[in-house]
Design a protein that fits this description.
By secondary structure, the chain is α/β, with parallel strands linked by helices. It has two domains: about 190 residues, FAD/NAD(P)-binding domain; about 100 residues, FAD/NAD(P)-binding domain, CATH 3.50.50. The protein is built from six helices and 17 strands. Strand 9, helix 4 and strand 10 form a beta-alpha-beta unit. The longest helix is centred in the last third of the chain and has 22 residues. The protein binds flavin-adenine dinucleotide. The site of flavin-adenine dinucleotide has 35 residues, from strand 1, helix 1, strand 2 and helix 6.
């Protein structure tokens, strides 16, 4: 589609996020002739943490990084440009979006698709950021094979802790399971299985206050929430699985979000700001899967296509008015 673009506009569509949702959106918009720019803080997002995917239709078995490489290639072949940077601010000026990045660049477009996914929640303690990737990890499934025979700390509780406890207990030489309550989760049968599967030391009513190490994790410092006593545990790794959050602060003036920062959008991916769409795990929708994120990317792209076409004076795909659409994130 090559209509008369608004003055000063660099792209028809800017996609924020180069995960599977954003790159799928880019395939769709670029193939339709929209000038498309993807701005991603990294390539692949969560798929980098997935060693094997066996439920992506049409592909019997593939690693997350391999899947995303293929999708990236498809987006580039379709004509999308991709730059690696973090978007820090978006504002709407008339019909134009102005998108600014941490690298100091500014891009202008007629529509924006937010495909910013979600990221692991951090503890926010000293040493955590410095030792990330050097013993501090947010993915037990990804790192369990590397932790065989090592002393490991797991910080997790509730239903979220089932998977990390299950994969770490049989491989770690000693697994210190740290949680803030009396029990990590109220399931005696599961706990019995995990405790029987390895050398697990439960550390209740406790929180991590510091992670230490020179080039790699060497120690985790914990504090009792009851007595205030501080204890140092020598470990090779600290696995933190305390949930995920969507970092949507930079667009809160343009979209509604829920308590996890997830963006409220309707089935067509439309947010409350015309021209601003959302897709993938960043949307307030309960199921977080690669195929769903990809489908949402396609859907948001088709909505963006209609929106841009209308701005350029051509009717194309006419979606229902916003009032007729229910948000996937609301009952
Ligand atoms: C351990 C694990 C195993 C999984 N296993 C499976 C599985 O077997 N099958 C399956 O279907 N799904 C699986 N999933 C889920 C699947 O990976 C996700 O649903 C999917 O990757 C979400 O894609 P997304 O593009 O919406 O978000 P993400 O993958 O989170 O990508 C979002 C991207 O946006 C970027 N970003 C965020 N903010 C900004 C910004 N301000 N500026 C620029 N870029 C930004 C991020 O850096 C990231 O690259 C798994 C997930 C995990 C963590």
């Amino acid at each position: 589609m090559h209509g008369a673009p608004a003055a000063g506009v660099d792209y028809d569509v800017i996609v924020v996020g180069a995960g599977i949702a954003g790159l799928t959106a880019a395939i769709y918009t670029a193939r339709q002739g929209l000038r498309t720019l993807v701005i991603g803080a990294d390539l692949g997002g969560q798929l980098n943490m997935v060693s094997v995917i066996k439920n992506y239709p049409g592909i019997h078995e593939i690693s997350g990084p391999e899947l995303i490489k293929r999708v990236e290639q498809q987006a580039r072949t379709a004509g999308a440009e991709i730059v690696f940077d973090e978007v820090t601010h978006i504002e709407k000026a008339g019909e134009m979006f102005v998108v600014r990045t941490a690298g100091g660049d500014e891009y202008r477009s007629l529509a924006v698709i937010l495909a910013i996914g979600k990221a692991p929640r951090k503890l926010g303690v000293p040493g955590e950021a410095e030792l990330r990737g050097r013993g501090v990890s947010y993915c037990a499934v990804c790192d369990a094979p590397l932790l065989r025979g090592k002393d490991v700390a797991l910080v997790s509780w509730g239903d979220l802790s089932r998977e990390p406890a299950t994969v770490l207990a049989p491989v770690a030489r000693k697994l210190y399971w740290i949680f803030p309550s009396d029990e990590p989760l109220g399931d005696d049968k599961f706990l019995g299985q995990v405790l029987g599967a390895g050398r697990v030391v439960l550390i209740p009513n406790s929180e991590v206050v510091e992670i230490r190490g020179r080039s790699r994790v060497e120690l985790v410092v914990i504090k009792s929430r009851k007595s205030g006593e501080v204890m140092e545990l020598p470990v090779s790794a600290v696995i933190i699985e305390v949930g995920y959050i969507t970092k949507s602060d930079f667009v809160r003036h343009l979209v509604d979000v829920n308590e996890r920062g997830e963006i409220i959008a309707d089935w067509e991916g439309r947010t409350k700001t015309p021209g601003l769409f959302a897709a993938g795990d960043a949307v307030a929708y309960p199921y977080k899967q690669a195929v769903i994120a990809a489908a949402m990317g396609a859907s948001a792209a088709l909505s963006a296509l209609s929106y841009v076409a209308r701005l350029k004076g051509r009717a194309l795909l006419s979606p229902r008015p916003l009032s007729e659409s229910r948000s996937p994130g609301t009952p």
